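Allow me, if you will, to draw on your knowledge of protein folds for a short while. The matter concerns a single protein, recorded as an amino acid sequence and a row of backbone structure tokens. Could you please explain, in whatever detail you think fit, how the structure tokens follow from the sequence? I remain grateful for any guidance, and I place the record below:

…
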Amino acid sequence: MKTTYLFSTSMYSTFCLSVFHVKDSGHLSIRTSNSTSTHHTAFLLTGVPGLEDFQIWISIPFSFMYLLAVIGNGLVMAVVAWDRNLHEPMYLFLAMLALNDVLLSTVIVPRMLLIFWQGPFLSTFPACLTQMFFVHALFLSESAVLLAMAFDRYVAICVPLRYATLLMGSFISKVGLALVARSVAVVTPGVLLILRLHFCRSNIIHHTYCENMGIAKLACNSYALNSIYGLTAALLTTGLDFVLITLSYWLILRTVFQLPSKEARTKAFGTCGAHICVILIFYTLAFFSFFTHRFGNHVPSHVLILLANLYLLVPPTMNPIVYGVKTKEIRMRVLGLCSQAK
């Protein structure tokens, strides 16, 4: 049975008609009439290419991970807000990370699950750009929060006498404003570069969410500037964050190994252990997905799409688990909050 989707688009007083056909096999093909510069009013997100018949099963682990992310991070935020003893920089940054994780997973997972359950999802052009903006902005803010947490540990271990002076309440609020401002400043030009493109061919995006290069590659005119800006922005933000975090922990480890007491060294490692685990999970998945997309020419497309989802969903799922296991204060407060709820 065939279903027809009709999109009318216009730009510079021209238009083109795109007719989509869903074949019996479940794959999508497109026939587009000849036209000049146009701009699609909608994009069709198809999910994971080549795995359409298995998407209902793929949705099960993704649903479970999303529930864990929302519940786990929600508990972390509730515990930090509820217990005034945890209103310290380390735990306030942790609450920021939990809030960012809930927002990031919520931006991508509900729509992804709709695609897995109901088939291709029709997203308007403004809605697609909005999702793209928040996906990239929240990813950048996650990296910035991890950098702030590394700085917090550096000051606490390497220059503890200045900790109370440097990391006051006003500093935490300034960090929060700075990471939001940085994300907006970096991602907005990427959105504006998308707006300059003309789309007159396919408006099918073989993905579960709208992202920068996924949209740009559908353009009729050159998207080289989009690619260059995206790569440069990634290196100067996430890449630089990683370098600074690595430098912070090199200085921390050097200081820890110089401590005279074994008990002090153990305590310092325990304080940093959870953060190191979270950093490894986040950046390992992010860099692996990033380089695989750009240099893994022989990697199947369904593997690339699954990686693009996992590097955004695994950290929000694992972060509250890691902090719950590694951080005694969080673990005890969560247990106390759950016992009060009973």
Q: What stands out?
A: The longest strand covers residues 14-22. The domain at 40-341 is CATH 1.20.1070.10 (Rhopdopsin 7-helix transmembrane proteins). The chain has a mean pLDDT of 83.
